[in-house]
Amino acid sequence: MPPRRVPKQGSTSNPPMDVTATPMETLLKRFQSFHPPTLKGTESSVDCESWLDDIEMLFESLDYTDERRVKLIGHQLHDVAKNWWITTKKALEHRGTAITLNVFRTEFYQRFFSVSYRKDKGAEFANLRQCQLNIEDYVAKFSALLRFTPHVAEHNEAIADQFINGLNPEIFTL
Q: What is the rounded CA–CA span in Å between residue 8 and residue 99?
């Protein structure tokens, strides 16, 4: 077995790193050091949405590629969610579907958000108006609800139209 790096006596440096670790092992260890949230799959739709938001924010801060995100996200799923993802991933691979973060999201929404929840969010998106919201809050709410309307999210022109139509008239005319 190759030698491991051992800190000098009295050193206050980080624990020794296994120099034989693969790049994925090193990536996983670094990712886990940020204590990413986990999901069991028995949580409410609201909690599942919060988990996805939290994990995606962590990915954004770490600036991981889409490929790395897909590989790492599976490590945060436990119990029901883990079993669901193993089965879903195998089915996708069998069909020849490339597993991207967008594919994961789509499958995740279908499994962990009830039809009525998705419809409610879609209706909320369709009826979203800026009203009393400042522009930053409107953008945040618009973005959060957009994920529940894949028929709109696939078309940049439809997104822009929906966004502009929800703005207050004084901003809209600008």
A: 44
Instruction: Tell which residue, 153, 101, 105, 103, has the closest CA to residue 125.
Output: 153
Cβ-contact 132, 168 below 8 angstroms: no
- Which of 140, 73, 139, 75 is CA-nearest to residue 107? 73
pLDDT digits (tens, 9 = 90+) for 92-116: 999 999 999 989 988 998 899 988 9
Type of residue found at 123: A
Which residues partner with 77 through β-bridges? 39
3-state secondary structure string across the chain: CCCCCCCCCCCCCCCCCCCCCCHHHHHHHHHHCCCCCCECCCCCHHHHHHHHHHHHHHHHHHCCCHHHHHHHHHHHECHHHHHHHHHHHHHHHHCCCCCCHHHHHHHHHHHHCCHHHHHHHHHHHHCCCCCCCCHHHHHHHHHHHHCCCHHHHCCHHHHHHHHHHHCCHHHHCC
pLDDT category at 17 given cuts 50, 70, 90 is low
Please report, for the chain, the start and end positions of each structural domain, with discontinuous segments joined by +: 43-113, 114-174
**Cβ–Cβ < 8 Å for 126, 153:** no
